[in-house]
Amino acid sequence: MDEHKSNKGPDAPSTFEVTRRTVIETGATALLLTTLPRAALAAGAVDDNEPPASPAQVELQINGQAHSLMLDPRTTLLDTLREHLALTGSKKGCDHGQCGACTVLIDGRRINSCLTLAVMHDGQSITTIEGLAAGDNLHPLQAAFVEHDGFQCGYCTSGQICSAVGMLAESRQGMPSYVTEDLTQPAADLTDVEIRERMSGNICRCAAYPNIVAAIKQAAGIAT
Amino acid sequence: MKAFTYQRADSAAQAAAAVKPGTKIIAGGTNLLDLMKLQVETPSKLVDINRLPLDKIEETPDGGLRIGTLVRNSDLAADPRVRQRYGVLSRALLAGASAQLRNKATTGGNLLQRTRCYYFYDVTKPCNKRNPGSGCAALAGFNRIHAILGTSDHCIATHPSDMAVAMRALDANVETVNRTGETRVIPIAEFHRLPGKTPEIETSLQPGEIITAVTLPPPPPGVQVYRKVRDRASYAFALVSVAAVVDSTRGRIRSARLAFGGLALKPWRSAQAEQKLTNASANTTTFNSAADAVLEGARGYGGNDFKMPLTRRTLHSVLAEMTRT
User: Fold this and answer.
1) What's the ipTM?
2) Which of A161, B11, B135, B176 could form an SS bridge with B126, CB 3.0 to 4.6 Å?
3) Model-level pTM?
């Protein structure tokens, strides 16, 4: 393993869970190594059949828990979450910042985790879909997505929900969008058109858009 | 992605000094990392400038604004002073990319982003910009998104930025520092270069010179509009875009500034077109003569021929809207 967990955070898992996850992750990697052809591995983000650059020490606060990692500088934040920390809620769709499936929040702001390097975020706080619920109590946006059927296959959903959390925060801060009619006014009402424009960085192949808009409106306390 | 070493810069001059052949500065990284994954960019070293204190928007003594190079596109678009005084810039920023990308993308990085020409992105195809002397696959290829103005036989790519188009209309200046700490101011008109015979040279930045800020002069008089025409209603690059600042009253135009995106390898401005609009009646004849002036020397390459009538119609629409009494 190339990282260790320092269980400083309030939601730190028990030793048993860490061990269990470690075993599963190691087992899965071993399986991949034995079953996938070399070309498939080379398609990964960092393996170009050449020696890695010297690893860098990276401290990340993820969902309230401190992680200390030694990473190849090429490792994207998305690959760090998925491949090094087994936080597979954030999805790899296009891996080029075009689909939004990898959306996470850094210090509360939504970004594409596939288009940034973990080393660039040393010392920062990251919230992923795994960090939104309070125990068994779903985040209001998670609950609203369930209630309004805001997905079909579900692959884009964690990105949609993280993006919506960031979007509602931006809206509360009075940030405008391309469809905001009067830029000189501090805040725009979250109409359907505003929500669709503000969420346009999250693509849903199943086209659950009407239900996604309805879920976001409910979570934002807007009458649907 | 090819292996690279990673360094965090402590000062802008130190970052500039660290720039050697094969080194890239990384700020937002939304374009650079995309290109590195495809091995269009293969730096051996990345210098991260994200922790430098270049993320402020400040008033200048002359009534303009100084925008630090690390100000994120979303923060620049949302700044109350930009929204009040430079609406065209706010609109242009909001017309570009997605909210997630704007939260990361920086002011300097936006100016330096690379073309989205398909052949530039495809390392199996010839491209004079990526591999000088290899040829241009777009000339006889799929060139629907390509340039009609300022092209050469070596490259017909466009510059993809919306922000830069608005800045061109606002006569912004780009501030830089080099490895010896020397500073320089480059008018945005001279910042991006047309392809000519050296499409691999994209800006007037010297090796080891990095952007520290963009300054905006006081806002020009008149109404400001950014109109973007694209294949989707959101989250798509411009086929044609217009940043316009028009000062008019009762159907008479006093002055106009027009900058175009999607037409060339740099934000395009036509002094002749602006002259046609100066002290002119706001009518179809005037708008037509302005469009003629913009399109003077325009050349289509098959797939992008439609950009000529589209430019004309977009300009008409914008000018009619802005001068409506």
Assistant:
1) 0.96
2) B135
3) 0.91
